[in-house]
């Protein structure tokens, strides 16, 4: 197995800007929702759009809840621990979300509060997350995944109205989830390309050293995010010609979804 690479670094200022930009897109999209829109079903179990919008707000206000707690004495989690620690809190998240959905979600106010909190606390400040204690800067990277994934969920529920994706937020979410794949399936036999944002090598097996690798997977950022989060199956992505896969080790089915 090849040695682990140094974790990818993210610029806290760019991450902050990306989160606030995506929140602005979501605020614009949700302000015009009718009662009928809010009652529409989503692909997230029994959640309606109302619960989904409440959850989007909750994913951002989680930063403030973490900052309100005493700072942990030491870091005991890395950014790449987060994608694998989300499923354990599903029941609590569902209950919290349904309680929040009983009142209106104001994403513009949520964004203003977040900006004030980030002005007050340094990026190095440790926060307790469901994955463990990590720097605020790293936790913010996870928020881009939440926002991009749920923007896609919302657009799907509303019949694909074309809610914009901030480029930096989409890039950050794509990179974190491709790096998580490489963490989950370490190796160098398969190259996964998600242009224009990420390329990783993964899966045990013969490692290529030059030229085109024998096993290649290529797809676009949103398709990759849907695969990594279980919104889309490998078979459906192939049927829709949403990805290409060549080589005997190019089937990523055993490693999907990445988040668990």
Tags for this entry?
260 residues, alpha+beta, four-stranded mixed sheet, two-stranded antiparallel ribbon, 9 helices, 6 strands, 47% helix, 10% strand
Distance between the termini: 23 Å
Major beta sheet, strand line-up: 4-3-5-6
As a percent range, the share of helical residues equals 40-55%
- The SSE order reads HHHHHEEHHEEEHHE
**How confident is the prediction overall: mean pLDDT?**
93
Multimer state? single chain
Low-pLDDT runs: none
Please identify the structural class as seen in this structure: alpha+beta
Range of strand content: 5-15%
Radius of gyration: 19 Å
Please, how many helices? 9
The general outline is globular
Largest sheet: 4 strands, mixed
Task: Please count the beta strands (DSSP E, at least 2 residues each).
Answer: 6
Task: Describe the structure in your own words.
47% of the residues lie in helices and 10% in strands. It is α+β, with helices and mostly antiparallel strands. Strands 4-3-5-6 form a four-stranded mixed beta sheet. Helix 3 runs antiparallel to helix 6 (136-157). The two termini are 23 Å apart. The relative contact order is 0.15.
